[in-house]
Design goal:
Elements lengths: L7 E5 L3 H18 L6 E5 L3 H4 L16 H8 L5 E5 L11 E6 L7 E5 L13 E3 L3 H10 L4 E3 L5 H9 L5 E5 H6 L8 E2 L14 E6 L3 H7 L5 H17 L7 E7 L3 E9 L6 E9 L3 H24 L2
Parallel strand pairs: 1-2, 1-3, 6-7, 6-8
Antiparallel strand pairs: 3-10, 4-10, 5-8, 5-9, 11-12, 12-13
Helix pairs in contact: 8-9
């Protein structure tokens, strides 16, 4: 007797956080369509970012390292739906793919995590701050030039374990990831998103599929959260103008209400010595245009020499 084909096939990375996000999508799809979760297949796909452990991601090509193998599986018809942390998705998607939905965004902010200091300002002079994010490293050096930035690659659990071993005195993690893993109690304090704008699309789970796959698009449409989609699309528009990649320290904080959209964005040099910030507001329906215009404004502020040196 032949086994029944899966209702839908999900592709995901194998980290604890990625699996938590994929399983959340599976649970919601099963409930929405009245099928068993067992009828929804979850395929773990090892990505370039997972294999790369010996050097910073920025040195190996930047954004897309955690998504391109999942995208290849989509294009090959091996899975129907890619579930991603939206901040890891390349600004330009491969031909034949599109982002179809974004689940309601979690807290977008970054968390300060330390076993010895309550806040960033409480760290002693010369303390070691663990991060392999070029944005977080630049923001920390901007706020505290005395800090020593030490490499801190790995998934959330690995980074927390390194902190426990004393590899660094503090680190910075997404509040969203800690909450989804049930580890919000590890947060020492939460960073002000205007002083430390998070990564574009941070906290949002993005669903990617084949552009021509109308069946899957129909199945996931009900998962889309309009406010999250609006904000993420605006932030990706900013990235597209800035040519943002893992080699470019970029942060953005978007605030929406029923009628308006306000975006505050920051571009830094990797060492934090230079920083350009701007805020732009407009109608909520124009959010993508606001993101693009804000990107152009930041490019003008930074100037061609900065862009030529640090642009993605």
């Amino acid at each position: 007797m032949q086994s029944r084909a899966p209702f839908i096939r999900i592709g995901t990375r194998g980290s604890a956080l990625a699996l938590a996000q994929a399983n959340l999508v599976r649970q919601r799809l099963a409930a929405m369509h009245g099928v068993s979760e067992d009828d929804i297949a979850v395929r773990v796909i090892t990505t370039s970012g997972d294999r790369l452990t010996d050097r910073p991601l920025a040195e190996a090509g930047g954004k897309g390292l955690f998504s391109k193998e999942i995208e290849a599986a989509l294009l090959a018809g091996e899975v129907d739906l890619g579930v991603h942390s939206s901040k890891d998705i390349a600004t330009t998607l491969p031909d034949g793919l599109r982002l179809a939905a974004f689940l309601e965004r979690e807290d977008v902010r970054d968390a300060f995590v330390s076993l010895t200091a309550a806040t960033l300002d409480d760290l002693p002079a010369g303390a070691r701050f663990g991060t392999s994010s070029i944005r977080r490293g630049a923001q920390m050096k901007r706020a505290r030039p005395d800090l020593e930035i030490v490499p801190f690659r790995g998934n959330v659990g690995t980074r927390l374990e390194k902190l426990q071993r004393g590899v660094a005195d503090a680190t910075q993690l997404a509040v969203a990831g800690l909450r989804r893993l049930g580890q919000a109690d590890r947060i020492t304090s939460v960073l002000d998103p205007r002083r430390f704008p998070p990564a574009p699309a941070q906290g949002a789970i993005g669903l990617e599929l084949r552009a021509a796959d109308e069946r899957t698009a129909g199945l996931v449409a009900g998962l889309d959260h309009p406010a999250t989609s609006t904000a993420v699309i605006a932030e990706r528009a900013l990235l597209a103008v800035l040519n943002g990649s893992c080699r470019t320290p970029i942060g953005v904080f978007t605030e929406l209400n029923e009628t308006s959209c306000t975006m505050h964005a920051q571009v830094l040099s990797p060492d934090g010595s230079q920083s350009f910030e701007a805020t732009l507001s407009g109608g909520r329906g124009e959010a993508a245009s606001i993101g693009a215009e804000l990107g152009r404004h930041l490019l003008a502020l930074a100037g061609p020499k900065f862009v030529a040196r640090f642009g993605g």
